[in-house]
Amino acid sequence: MLTSRPFAARVTGFLHAMSDAAKKFLTGIVLALLVGAGIGWLYGRPEIGLLIAALLTLLWQVRQLLSFDRALRTDNFDDFRIGEGIWEQMFSRFRFERDRAAQRKLSYRQLLKEIRKSTNAMPDGAVILNQENEIVNCNRAAKALAGLKRKKDRGQRVDNILRDPELTKLLQADDKSYTVEIASPVGEGNWLNCRVVPYGADQKLLLLRDVTERIRLSKMRRDFVANASHELRSPLTVISGYLDSLADDESMPSGWEKPIEQMQGQAKRMRQILGELLELSRLEGSGAVKDQEPVEVVDLCESARLAFEGHSNIAGIEFNAESKAQLRGSAAEIETVIVNLLSNAVRFTPTDGRITLTWRSGQDGAELVVADTGEGIDPEFIPRLTERFFRVDKGRSREDGGTGLGLAIVKHVLARHDAELIITSEPGEGSEFCCRFPVDRVVVSPPVALS
Ligand code: ADP
What we know:
Elements: H1 7-17, H2 20-42, H3 46-74, H4 85-121, E1 125-129, E2 135-138, H5 140-146, H6 158-161, H7 165-172, E3 179-183, E4 191-199, E5 203-210, H8 212-248, H9 257-285, E6 294-295, H10 297-309, E7 316-321, E8 326-328, H11 331-347, E9 354-362, E10 365-372, H12 394-399, H13 406-416, E11 420-426, E12 430-438, E13 442-443
Parallel strand pairs: 7-9
Antiparallel strand pairs: 1-2, 1-5, 3-4, 4-5, 6-8, 8-13, 9-10, 10-12, 11-12
Helix pairs in contact: 2-3, 8-9, 9-13, 10-11, 11-13
The structure holds adenosine-5'-diphosphate (ADP).
């Protein structure tokens, strides 16, 4: 049960908790009242003396309070009589807090200056955006790289200033690793790499990096490969022509047939490599596919299967048409993908194995899958398969007519169709090459559920 503390104990506790200045303040008031009462007592009216002393004490305190209030309002403490005791303590406490706040403000201002200085020193552009993609702030590099002006463009939507569908896509995507490259509005032929990362509670940071040099070098490399391939084609055609004539020439001394046949084979191989290199350069140099005609994927798959079926000594090919959906894109390029994937499956699957080609669509898009029960691929090589000239077994690939460019072409065609290639494989079990197309590339009528 709770027992209330005795009154005397509570008063003692209260007095203990008081500061020395507060105690002095109270003692002063009590003394003033006692002196007043004493003087009144001398005149036979102690209560009048007490009353007058109480009034004078009150007036003094009110005066102190009002002049303290004025000093606070005018921020001028020169006229304020500090006096002693509690008023002095209050004043020095106030002065201490005020100085501390001023100090804090100064250091925050300095910190802000430092942050601004360091973001301005950054070679990359940084633009703070709100949830509506409106510019909140940007650094100096954003002005140099993209022409954004901190004060003038504040509150404007960034995609209204940097008008590029790729940037709009990036701002809509919720993926920190997604980057796009856009032409800069500042300077002819300048390119910017853009990335968006979350920033603060409900803001995002658009980072802009100058990639003009990289794009220029990759264009130079592409042009060089395309020009060299093009230039090599003509002499190769002449050599092949002579080789064909020599092969048909019956007056050739015996023993020359074999070398000429080998030279013809190598010339054919070189023509194939040059053709594929030119095709790769063309694919790399163009953006998303322009040809938006719906492509009958089922027909393409069926004719590719029939073309392979004509070959002897290959594994059986089965086609599962789980969807009748069409694809918006280039029929010739989709056919290249199907043929490349099927020819790989045929080359790497024994004749008693099985190859399945599947076309299916659903709410998330569509998939074209080539699966085989062939030799499979070691997982460490899978990420490198789409590199140019990468082959797990170079010698063997060369022997059976591989160039090492097939999957690189497949990857580029898919990129032009906003699609991705997903490779899964188990050594000794087989491989699966899945081309996944986004839903806006798919024309479905009627819709068929993805199995
Ligand atoms: P290549 O002309 O050599 O086939 P690709 O780019 O088409 O070039 O393929 C690269 C390499 O990927 C091949 O050399 C082979 O090692 C591997 N590969 C591709 N498809 C398959 C498959 N279906 N099964 C096993 N390995 C494959």
